[in-house]
Design brief:
By secondary structure, the protein is α/β, with parallel strands linked by helices. Helix content is 31%, strand content 25%. It has four helices and six strands; from the N terminus they run βββαβαβαβα. A six-stranded mixed β-sheet has the order 1-2-3-4-5-6.
């Protein structure tokens, strides 16, 4: 698996050590590991990365928010932008959200009904749809 680490271009705007690591664990699936706050200062950057991955041919996206300490409405909007670009379909866009305080943001906004929320990266990758169109066993 090849990793690409992207330091935030928005750091000068006040983003708190925001960065995203990107990998392709298998054909058609792109994994993003987000570090820092997902907020007004970093949301557009993440949204652009998600859209770009779909435009390059990704059939499923997994976004790992385990190292995210805060998510605001702009951050939620970036995630929605990614799932809209990918299109409907169970397992095509999954989030790793182990922290109860971050998970609560999705529950309060009812976005836990939009996004499959997994406790671990392994669970999310196992539930992601691959190029073959079927569920992968992990």
């Amino acid at each position: 698996m090849r990793w690409i680490v992207r330091d935030s271009e928005s750091a000068v705007l006040g983003a708190s050590d925001f960065r995203v690591e990107e990998a392709q664990p298998r054909d058609g699936t792109v994994l993003f590991i987000v570090h820092g706050d997902l907020d007004l200062h970093s949301a557009d950057e993440l949204g652009d990365l998600l859209v770009s991955a779909v435009d390059r041919g990704a059939s499923s996206l997994v976004v790992d928010l385990a190292d995210v300490g805060f998510v605001d409405s702009q951050g939620l909007g970036a995630l929605l932008r990614g799932t809209r670009r990918l299109g409907a379909g169970e397992g095509r866009f999954r989030l790793v959200v182990p922290a109860p305080e971050i998970r609560r943001v999705f529950e309060i906004t009812a976005l836990d009904r939009v996004f499959p929320l997994d406790a671990t990266r392994e669970q999310a990758l196992a539930g992601a749809i691959g190029d073959d169109g079927g569920l992968n066993d992990g």
